[in-house]
Amino acid sequence: MKRRLFLTLLLTVTFALAVAGNASAQGRGHGGGGGGGGASPGGPPSGAGVDRGLGRSSDASMGRSDAGRDNASTRSNGRSDAGLERARIASQNLHDADNDLRHHPNIASDMHVTANDLRAGYQAALVTNPNLTFGNYVAATRLAQNLGGRNPAITRDAILAGLANGDSIGKTLRNLGLNDDEAKAAKKRVELQIKQSKNNR
Question: pLDDT digit string (tens) for 1-12?
């Protein structure tokens, strides 16, 4: 009886050891296969790794990103070119103003302002409207002096805003409350005043 029990235990232990060894061998076999050159059955095909995915993403986006950069560059260059042109025009107008003030100092003194103050005001106005001529700035200043007392809406800034909007001096004055005859008379008076200032040295 004891011997039969001993044999049964021995067979059980031997079988357990055999099963454990077989499982270990199978585990090593699967591990080796996973570390080899072939892909696992459930994984991506050969060459379909992260790099391939990035390649597709890069290819798919390159057209849009290139176009975006080109468009942004084009738009930026357009703004840059326009800005440079505005600066060039403003610089030329300021240069012309310096010449006028140098050759005709009475332009400023007849309006009871200094040449430096008149120049500084004109330079500030050029930031908003680089196409503004010095003659129109002087005219706007004169008109405001001549008419502002009786017509509070007529200020230099209001006239300059009309000019920046593309309106003529006459239309600007009409928009500020003068009738057609009054606008023409005011404009004619200012032109005469400026002419006299230039002729009186």
Answer: 545 555 555 556
